[in-house]
Amino acid sequence: MTHYQALRVTQQSPDDFHCEVARLPLGELGSEGVLIKVYYSCLNYKDALSAAGNPGVTRTFPHTPGIDAAGVVEQDPSGVFAPGQRVLISGYDFGMNTPGGLAEYCRVPAQWVSVCPDDLSLRNAMLYGTAGLTAAMAMQKIQKLQPEVAGRRFVVTGASGAVGSLAVLLAAHAGYSVTAVTGKAQEFDRLTQLGASQCLPAEDLLKSSPKPLLKPEWDCGLDSLGGAALVNVLKATAPEGAIANCGLALGPELEGNVFPFILRGVSLLGIDSVEQPLETKRALWQSLAAVPLTAEQEALIIREVELTQVPELLAAMLKGSGRGRVVVNLQAKG
Ligand SMILES: NC(=O)c1ccc[n+]([C@@H]2O[C@H](COP(=O)([O-])OP(=O)(O)OC[C@H]3O[C@@H](n4cnc5c(N)ncnc54)[C@H](OP(=O)(O)O)[C@@H]3O)[C@@H](O)[C@H]2O)c1
After folding, report:
1. Residues 258, 148 within the same domain
2. Considering the domain boundaries, does residue 278 fall inside one?
3. What span, in angstroms and rounded, lies between the C-alpha atoms of 236 and 246?
4. In the record, what terms sit under GO molecular function (predicted)?
5. CA–CA gap between residue 171 and residue 232 (Å, rounded)
6. Same domain, 244 and 313
7. Closest C-alpha to ligand 1, atom 22
8. Which of 35, 235, 269, 303 is 20 to 30 A away from residue 244, measured at CA?
9. Element (H or E) spanning 327, and its range?
10. Is residue 252 domain-shared with residue 167, that is, in the same domain?
11. Which domain holds residue 64?
12. Is the CB of 57 within 6 Å of ligand 1?
């Protein structure tokens, strides 16, 4: 094997980036770190930002995005991993300024690599990927504050997206009563089948409200939008509630007030699944492997594609059309 296929983002001019599948020499990956044959990757919002040349994610081009990968070790000069071991890589600098998982091969430091739990297929590991780790971590943080789950109301914003769909599935599986908030009315059925007790249109949450607080609608939840959505979610959280935020699809600003914190004791929890110690990630992978996933649920979440379809899908993600989990099959020879 001398060459491999990879997604390649090139900079044409200061504001113009082009994304296509290219055939690259394997030697470009260098000779240090664990060489992994990638079987599956998946699409995350951050990959879309990287492919669009967002300097907050990727600074040097040409570049191969992909913050998640599931594959098999080909070679490890450090001797930590044996050839043939099934492994997962997620987060750190993978796919940001280090060539990522949207490629047939990758090479990464051994400190970024987790062994894939026996009871998790490489494909289902990428059904979860960073999005699943993020949703699982949010629930873990919320449950540290509110260990009781039964009868608690859990809200999810951006519910049709990758993090959102998985948060609906995992929160319902844990026993919460889940409210899914989505900008896509056509997704209500799918979200209900994933476990949502009710679905709300995102429209109302996106308007800024002059009211200092809103009627309490939920006890906890995960917001992946930021901006006005997060402000309104906080205002409508019940006393002593906890809201985790992981994303900024609506923007990084937070123009709200402190009343949810000082009048209702609401907690705002930050989620960063990317830079967690490998031990924490391993434990999260194990917790995800233990979630029983029916074939119907799998079909409701996964859309499996090939690498050639990725440029178009990444561009669509930036427009808010993300739906469930796009899993990329890197070894499909279509
Ligand atoms: N902190 C962390 O560790 C961490 C980890 C993973 C992801 N994230 C962040 O979490 C967020 C969601 O990631 P994802 O992978 O789930 O993305 P995604 O699959 O593209 O989903 C994002 C969802 O947000 C909603 N949305 C509403 N307005 C949008 C807009 N203007 N642009 C884009 N989306 C819009 C859409 O859902 P509806 O139509 O249903 O409203 C969309 O499906 C991103 O900001 C990502 O960077 C953070």
Report:
1. yes
2. no
3. 18
4. acryloyl-CoA reductase (NADPH) activity
5. 21
6. no
7. 161
8. 303
9. strand 325-329
10. yes
11. 3-116+295-329
12. no
What tokens does 243 get?
A: 């809201």
Token pair listed for 9: 């983002």
Total domains, the chain: 2
Q: Residue 92 and residue 300: Cα distance in Å, rounded?
A: 29
pLDDT value of position 333: 67
Q: What is the reported pLDDT for 176?
A: 97
Tokens of 118: 């026996």
Closest residue by CA, ligand 1 atom 35: 320
List Cβ neighbours of 296 (8 Å cut-off, separation of 6 or more).
193
Yes or no: say if 213 and 264 are a contact pair by the CB < 8 Å rule: yes
Domain assignment present for 282: no
Domain-ending residue, one of 270, 285, 303: 270
State the sign of the Cα–Cα–Cα–Cα dihedral 205, 206, 207, 211.
positive
Residue 44 C-alpha to ligand 1 middle, in angstroms? 8
Which of these, 44, 48, 53, lies nearest to 18 by C-alpha position? 53
Q: Is 162 in the pocket of ligand 1 (CB under 6 A)?
A: yes
Report the DSSP pairing between strands 34-42 and 68-75.
antiparallel
Pocket test of ligand 1: the residue of 41, 42, 43, 44 to mutate, having most ligand atoms within 8 Å of its CB, is: 44
Residue 281 and residue 279: Cα distance in Å, rounded?
A: 5
Assess whether the previous peptide bond of 216 is cis (omega < 30° from 0): no
The CA 248 to ligand 1 mean position distance, Å, reads 7
